[in-house]
Structure formats: structure tokens, C-alpha cells
Design a protein that fits this description.
494 residues; alpha/beta; 7-stranded mixed beta sheet; 6-stranded mixed beta sheet; 14 helices; globular; binds SN-glycerol-3-phosphate; lactaldehyde dehydrogenase (NAD+) activity; oxidoreductase; NADP-dependent glyceraldehyde-3-phosphate dehydrogenase; glyceraldehyde-3-phosphate dehydrogenase (NADP+) (non-phosphorylating) activity; EC 1.2.1.9
Length: 494
């Protein structure tokens, strides 16, 4: 708990006139790790003013120059992998290796953004704690390449990691005002920012707050990703080991990279992709990187984690046994040790997860492991025989707790998936591709993965949720399109 980190405005690092700070609690130690400035509304006004002015000349900056600066920022970001990853470990308890991967993945994402558009003006970017860097640059880079300026409001947990990332853009030499970053209390600057007349577009990733923002924001384009209750439907003919691997340790497909940017083992894999026009072929060979992500990765603190397993009764016992074997092998402990299961982000989050577990207990769910918690650290838990009357059947724990609902047929699975308020992603495990396509068509979610767990990446892919899961689509091209506006000039010759 040393000095308070400065905020970034008009190309300079500044101390807030409020004289106040916001503490950032280390989820592992539960002690104050960092402090950031508690910016005032006047300071937000100043940031908006400079963003507005800077955007005008930024939009006139040639595309090649904007792309050059983004490539430079991407390289600097990757060079700063170590200190930024260390912040992620301390602020959001991200396991050390995942933290480093997030920084590199973010550098790659910044580099992918090199397309032309007609800017909207000032884009307000609000990323979540689970990817304070990656889900910040996934908003910043498309906005900038399209000629917008950016005002970033990072999550409190993850704010210092985000400030380090902004410093990389600062070092790359972006003109002053093109990027700003304000930190502070939601109660003081939250609504003030999202309802600010200077904002021309909001890109938000997070929870219910997004619904409140969308009701207040007014007539501006919104890009919202607000969580999910991603269902995993497992049919009788499924490759059970594959399903178990995906529930416990997902497999994520990444696009072929010119320069392998991390040390994850790679296997070549034939895959059908639906990448966006600029970067990924529609069908072809992509590299499949094995990553320990699944529900366990980030302790289920991913919008795309499998959040409910809907398995056919006839194979449920075998599936549960196999998942339990995997759970028994997971390491639980501090992020510095790169454990599979690390503390969840805040005490209130741990309390919420516990409330879902206790409700399930009261209503008769089968506990496959003993429920165990120390501080913010919750041991992985599989809950079998979950019934619709239990909260965990519908609510998003954002923690290492996975409910299993036994179903009699695929229709029951589809029905449960579609009865959810969420509609982010879902997945199906079956060897029958025709059946998989029919189920996929019936599932009301933004994406369906067949024989793989849900995932946002590769970062080029369009990423969208229905219902309370969001508005619009993210991804490199989708975001650039969303952050630009069609402009028509009709010439009527005399
Ligand atoms: O939770 C945020 C969501 O975007 C997840 O991303 O890459 O873990 O699938 P990813």
C-alpha cells in the first residue's frame, strides 16, 4: 500500500484534486495492494473535452500512421509483459502464467486492428476485472484505428494493470488526448461518465451494471457483454473424455500466428472457422492451443465458462465420476504459484458464491466434494442432481462451482438453455453433426460450440450475446464496424 497511482489525461500522468484515493484489495491477502486516484467530475469533464479536441485531428491522421502507432503500442505492451502480469496476479489473483498470456494476447489483438472506418467521436471503454488488459485493448484498438479517441474507465480491481497498459500507449507516442484513463469511485464518476454528453459510444463488459447503463445512456451506439450461464449439453453418443476435458480443462482455438507468442504446446488441427473478413480464413487449418481454461480456469470467473452441465441421465454417473477425478487433480492456492484455482476477486463475490452453494444444499443437491472456503479462496465443487428450483441452476456464480442437471432428452437441455435470462454461448457434445446443428439452431445464444467448450477467442471471432448477455457484437472487425458510422453523400448534378 504505497503511493497512489496517477490517472492519465491530456497525455500526462496526474494527481486528482480530490486528494482522495480508491484502494485495491489483493484478493489473496485481502489487504490493500495499490491505490488509484479518485477522480472528480470536473476532471472527467476535462478528459472529455481533450478527447473531443484530440479526436478531430486523430481522425485526419492517415490510416497508416494510426496503424503504425498501434503496432508500436502492441510491441511495447509485449515488452512490458512481466510487470503488467505481476499486477494482474496481485489485483485479480490471475494465475501467473495466465496473466502473462493475457498481456501477450492483448498485444496480438492490438496488432490485428488495422482497418479503415468513419469515426463516431469519443468512445468510452469500460472493461471488467477478469481481463482488465485484454478486454480494454479489445475496445481501445478498434476505436483508435477507426479514428475515435478513447476514454478508459478501468475496473477497480485491475486498475493498476490497466494504467500500466495505458503507459505502453503513452510510450508509443499517441497524440495527447487521444487516450485518457480515469480512475475513481463508481458513485462519483460512474453515471457521470456513462451519461456524459461528450461520449459518442460506450463499449462495456461486465455484469448487471451494463443493463443500468443501457437504460441511461441515450442515443448512442452501445456494445455490451454482460455475462452468461453457458450451458453444456452432453448427449449419449458424446465422446465423454472430450466433454470432460472441456468441462475441466477447455481447449481454445487460436488463429495461426506469424510469430508464436507464447510457450503453450501447439497441435495442428483441421477446423472450420468463421473468422471475420480481415484476418482469419473462413475455412482452413488453425492451430489449436491447449490451455487449462474451462470452468476451472480463472475459477469460473469468465463470462464464457461452462456454467451448467445438462447431461443425459444414462451417461451422467460416468461423466460425474470422470469430472470428479479431474477436480481431484486441480491445485488450489495463490496465483503466484500458478495454481489452477486461485482466490475469487472479492470477499463479496465469495459470499455470493457461498449463498448459491448453501441454497443448493438446502434444496438437496448432491455435493461431490466437501464445500471448503478460506477467505476468498473457494475449493472447486461439482454439484450433481441440481434441480430447476435451485438458484445455481440459473444464476451465474462466477466461481469454481459447477452444477450438473440430469436430462431425459435433448429437448430438456434446449429448454433449460433457452429459459435462461442469459444467451451468451453454449456447447453441445455429440458425434452426430446433424443432431448438433439442429440443437445449435434451437439454442438462443450468440455462439454455440460443437464438441468444444465456450470461448470468446480467437480475438478476431465475432462475440455476441442475446437477451441479458448483451448488445452488439465484439471481435476485431465487428468492433471496428460498431465504432464507425455509415456516412452518405449524394451528389445531385445540376
Ligand atoms: O468473461 C469475459 C469473456 O469475454 C470471456 O473471454 O476469452 O475467456 O472466453 P474468454
Amino acid at each position: 500500500a504505497g503511493d497512489t497511482f496517477k490517472y492519465y489525461s491530456e497525455g500526462e500522468w496526474k494527481v486528482s484534486a480530490s486528494g482522495k484515493s480508491v484502494p485495491i484489495i489483493n484478493p489473496t491477502t485481502r489487504k490493500t495492494q495499490f491505490k488509484v486516484q479518485a477522480c472528480t467530475q470536473e476532471e472527467v469533464n476535462k478528459v472529455m473535452e481533450s478527447a473531443k479536441i484530440a479526436q478531430k485531428s486523430w481522425a485526419k491522421t492517415p490510416l497508416w500512421k494510426r496503424a503504425e502507432l498501434l503496432h508500436k503500442a502492441a510491441a511495447i505492451l509485449k515488452d512490458h509483459k512481466k510487470p503488467i502480469a505481476e499486477c494482474l496476479v496481485k489485483e485479480v489473483a490471475k494465475p501467473a502464467k495466465d496473466a502473462a498470456t493475457e498481456v501477450v494476447r492483448s498485444g496480438d489483438l492490438v496488432s490485428y486492428c488495422a482497418e479503415e472506418g468513419i469515426p463516431l467521436g469519443v468512445v468510452l471503454a469500460i472493461p471488467p476485472f477478469n481481463y482488465p488488459i485484454n478486454l480494454a485493448v479489445s475496445k481501445i484498438a478498434p476505436a483508435l484505428i477507426a479514428g475515435n479517441s478513447i476514454v478508459l474507465k478501468p475496473p477497480t480491481q485491475g486498475a493498476v494493470s490497466a494504467l500500466h497498459m495505458v503507459h505502453c500507449f503513452h510510450l508509443a507516442g499517441f497524440p495527447k488526448g487521444v487516450i485518457s484513463c480515469v480512475t475513481g469511485k463508481g458513485s462519483e464518476i460512474g453515471d457521470f461518465l456513462t451519461m456524459h454528453p461528450g461520449v459518442n459510444c460506450i463499449s462495456f463488459t461486465g455484469g448487471d451494471t451494463g443493463i443500468a447503463i443501457s437504460k441511461k445512456a441515450g442515443m448512442i451506439p452501445l456494445q455490451m457483454e454482460l455475462g452468461g450461464k453457458d450451458a453444456c449439453i452432453i448427449l449419449e453418443d458424446a465422446d465423454l473424455d472430450l466433454a470432460v476435458a472441456n468441462i475441466s480443462h477447455e481447449l481454445t482455438i487460436y488463429p495461426p500466428l506469424k510469430t508464436p507468442s507464447n510457450d503453450l504446446p501447439v497441435e495442428k488441427q483441421q477446423s472450420i472457422g468463421y473468422g471475420e473478413k480481415s484476418s482469419v480464413p473462413s475455412i482452413g487449418t488453425v492451430e489449436k492451443r491447449r490451455m487449462p481454461i474451462g470452468t476451472r480456469r480463472r475459477c469460473g470467473q469468465r463470462c464464457t465458462a461452462v456454467k451448467v452441465v445438462l447431461v443425459m441421465e444414462s451417461i451422467a454417473d460416468t461423466l460425474v465420476k470422470k469430472v470428479n477425478e479431474k477436480i481431484g487433480k486441480l491445485s488450489v492456492g495463490p496465483p503466484e504459484n500458478d495454481c489452477d484455482i486461485t482466490p475469487v476477486v472479492t470477499e463479496s463475490s465469495a459470499n455470493f458464491i457461498e449463498s448459491l452453494v448453501m441454497d443448493a444444499k438446502k434444496k438437496g443437491a448432491t455435493f461431490c466434494q466437501e464445500y471448503k472456503r478460506e477467505g476468498n479462496l473457494i475449493w472447486p465443487l461439482l454439484l450433481d442432481n441440481v434441480k430447476p428450483e435451485m438458484r445455481i441452476a440459473w444464476e451465474e456464480p462466477f466461481g469454481p462451482v459447477l452444477p450438473v442437471i440430469r436430462i431425459g432428452n435433448a429437448e430438456e437441455g434446449i429448454h433449460h438453455c433457452n429459459a435462461s435470462n442469459f444467451g451468451l454461448q453454449g456447447c453441445i457434445f455429440t458425434k452426430d453433426i446433424n443432431k448438433a446443428m439442429l440443437i445449435s439452431d434451437a439454442m438462443e445464444t450468440g455462439t454455440v460450440q460443437i464438441n468444444s467448450a465456450p470461448a470468446r477467442g480467437p480475438d478476431h471471432f465475432p462475440f455476441q450475446g442475446l437477451k441479458d448477455s448483451g448488445i452488439g457484437s465484439q471481435g476485431v472487425t465487428s468492433s471496428i464496424n460498431m465504432m464507425t458510422k455509415m456516412k452518405s453523400t449524394v451528389i445531385n448534378l445540376p
